[in-house]
Amino acid sequence: MRLPVLVFDIETMTDLKSGAHLYDLNLEQSDLEQALAKLRRQESGSDFQRLPLHEIVCISGLWIDENGTMKLFSFSKENFSEAEILSKFLSIFDKRHPTLVSWNGAQFDLPVILYRTMYHGLSAPSLFDQGEIDTQKRYNNYQNRYHHRHIDLMDVMSMFNLRNFQKLDDIAHMLGYPGKRGESGYFVPEYVKTQQWLKLTSYCEGDVLNTWLIYLRWLLLKGQLLNHDHRLWIQATIHYLQGKPEQQDFLNVWRERSLETAFTENDFSTQN
């Protein structure tokens, strides 16, 4: 494993202001969201908005430094504007150059970050440089699908074939991990509107943790972790989360789900 590692996920809702500007709509806010959803269904057959209209309301990450120390964090609309959320996240890449890990990050998270960064007039050369500034990034950058600076697990596990794409929740559940625990990104706008910030960040952090656990299994598959080292990382993750009260539900569900597969049934056997 090339450390440091940053596993990340974003949560979004429709940017009504930009949508009204794009479609030249002069409507009350209560009617605007419904109108934008209807227009999108006419365009694509789905309510899922085009990427530039996804306003970022939370970015969560799990940082693992060179010593294996973990830090789970979230930047959300509870305390920051979207521009501030982006600035805080992007500053990580100005200071460090982590291995970036995501689920569907190449298809969704990074393009949304790109559009929203441009919308706010921010710069992010450390994340989006492809060799124009740092020539080494011609051969290993965060955008190239086949480089290793950003590992989109959904993409690599599908063997880069979109017909094989799988949902994070399904793969996490199958492998003996918590998955989304009955939650859905559908509720994110409601969390923001009703200021349920803990639910928002816990949901986003849950996706990050599931992605991290799948990443460890991916490294084991690839031979980049030995079974013994994989076990140590699992134990370190459990120990870290035991010190975070807001993640006790994640741990409890993980404990139950781990019993469903032979490989994970002993994940908690050495825990008190």
TrEMBL record:
CDD domains from the UniProt entry: DNA_polB_like1_exo
Positions of the Predicted 3'-5' exonuclease PolB-like domain: 46-254
Ranges in coiled-coil conformation: none
Molecular-function annotations in GO: nucleic acid binding
Domain of life from the UniProt record: Bacteria
Pfam families (alphabetical): DNA_pol_B_exo2
Name of the protein described by the UniProt record: Predicted 3'-5' exonuclease PolB-like domain-containing protein
